[in-house]
Amino acid sequence: MKDFKKIILILVTILFFGGFTQAQYAPWAKLSSNAPKDISSRKYLVPTKDEVGIPAYPGAVISSVSAPSTDTTKYKQEVLPFVILVSTDNPNNVVAFYKRNLTKNSGWNYNEEFRTFVKGKTGTALTGFVPTVSIRDEDGENFDLVYVDQGLKNRLKTRIEITYKPSK
């Protein structure tokens, strides 16, 4: 009976603490009531906070994630995965948040003109081969927002495109 209790205690500990380390990066954006029940991209696994390694803007929600590498085998060794967040907050507030979190001391460079943070040299930002965080204005008209709740879409102001190198 003692061994059984030990096993239960170990399992509970693993499940309890494992759940914290595997926290979903951010929640999905709320869908409208007329959205199809089976949106294929919503079947893709949302990366964990640990996998992305770049903080999600507080209160932002996911509008899309990259397809699993099994769906993009051709690019598996080339293009990094991405997650796109949307926020009702002002782009300037989002930029300020990432300026505090993605610093030069940790290897990030910021390009004011393109509102883009790059891990490494800014000239490599558009390749999809290096971690980047790009902040854009959002009007709710992007394709990945077609079935998002209209009340949310009407309030969106910022799109945050995060390309990340998955942690092992």
Largest sheet: 6 strands, antiparallel
Report the C-alpha radius of gyration, rounded. 18 Å
Weakly predicted, low-confidence segments: 11-21
**What is the number of strand segments?**
6
Number of helices: 4
Q: Percent of residues in helical segments?
A: 10-25%
Residue fraction in strands? 15-25%
**Distance, first to last CA:** 38 Å
Strand sequence of the main sheet, in spatial order? 1-2-6-5-4-3
Q: How would you explain this protein's 3D organization?
A:
With 168 residues, this protein is of the alpha+beta class. Helices cover 23% and strands 18% of the residues. The chain contains four helices and six strands, in the order ααββαβββαβ. About 7% of the residues have low confidence.
What attributes characterize this protein structure?
168 residues; 18% strand; alpha+beta
Brief write-up:
The chain has 168 residues and is an alpha+beta fold. Helices cover 23% and strands 18% of the residues. Strand 3 and strand 4 (116-119) form a beta hairpin.
